[in-house]
Amino acid sequence: MTCRDASSRESLNSLLAGETVQFCERQAFVNLGAPLHFIGISGIGMSALARLLRARGFSVSGCSDVRTELTDRLEEEGIPILFGHSADHLRDGVTLVVSSAIDTHTSELSEAERRGIPVIRRGSLLAALLSGADGAQEIRSLAVAGTHGKTTTTAMLGTILDEAGEEPTVVLGGEFVGGLCAGSNTRNGTGTWFVAESDESDGSFLELRPSVAVVTNVENDHVTSDEELTSLMTAFERFLAGVGEVAIIGVDEPRSLTLAELPRAARTVTFGFAAQADVRATSVFYRGFGSTFDVVAHGAPMGTVSLSVPGAINIQNSLGAVAAGLEIGLPFAGIAQALSRFQGVRRRFEILAQGERFTVVDDYAHHPTAVEATLAAARAAWDGPIVVAFQPHRYSRTRYLAREFALALRGADRVILTPIYEASEAPLPGVDATLIGEPLRGFGTEVAYVDSVERLVDEIRGSAPRGSLVLLLGAGTITSAAHRLAQHAQELPLQARAER
User: Fold this and answer.
1) Looking at residue 32, what is its pLDDT?
2) Which residue of the set 166, 197, 207, 459 is catalytic?
3) Looking at the structure, do residues 202 and 99 belong to the same domain, yes or no?
4) Is residue 307 domain-shared with residue 165, that is, in the same domain?
């Protein structure tokens, strides 16, 4: 049997209904030193915890459906990985770690139930670590949530705390491009701060009780209808109710603005471009693939921030990080210096190759708002043609948001659509990429289709105008095409705007 995505909606609704999340007692995996076996270790969140616990001296192993670049790196780092799934993988005395993406009928889980082997959810394990369950040190926890931007904001906060000499522990839903723990998604720090990206998609962030929380925004992702947004909003309310000291909330998006206005025990601080934000950006200036802006906090001018990551979305992300840094007592000058050195996160507007023929960008955007923000960042930096290759993610999301995707993609000069990445969903009748492409064509945008992701490289090489910026967008397998395309781009200077 193979790993597959569980229903995020079912998991979230179970937690909201008050069902107990079953996980082993802390002593089972801490005091007794039980080996930890991660089922689905190639997941970005699972691999981060596996790396962290191995760095802290735990015995860690895992299994994965397929061999990937990430599993290769984990093996190089000394984590043994088995491929496929079998009850024979289980050793006596082991504790299993699973995520919500694992089929509950996977052979290891069935065998664990038969033998009474303890099982802990990834979210529960993260919650235990954030509370200091492994006894490593005194912990002050900072959790970042939100539909968009949480990976980058978490990485920015880790960079800021590191620059301040705080030696933070960081658990990230992506991998640093450079700087702090370059090429990895975790850092085992020696300081008291533990910074973690949290996950609302399966409700596991409801298990966290952070000292400080950042919520970037709340949008209609991980739901399949407008009616389900009520449950999502309720989940964010409950997450923020568990915050101990201060809740830091972006207010440029209406749902998170609503959250900011609700009463709670923790103090609330807001951030964004909005005039009412406690921490906001003014005098914004875009320069190439970066920006500069001034920060005003609680009415007082703080100084200037320069970023080398593009677009308004990264200004918003950095404002959340600035607000958190100020709230925990860090000087603004140090925060600004750290942000100026921040190099980004893989698959978040990651420039893979710069060539005279075209420049290749790989990006994880798979929701209309993220797609629109990525295209806006590209337009702010690029004078030439912009070509987008987009791999829709999930049949249910495509059906629900098809028109919104078309509206978001119309900012491109040309769009190439691949088949839908199913993420283990069963196909839905009549749901395919044309639900996006035909309305997009109606807006006047040139649209093409390929019958597989593997065909993208030839299609782009044959059709992209000279001097194009090529964006490959999606949360599925399209990143492999981006890396193959990058091999064809010559290493010549960018054709970006000098300034705007």
Assistant:
1) 37
2) 197
3) no
4) yes
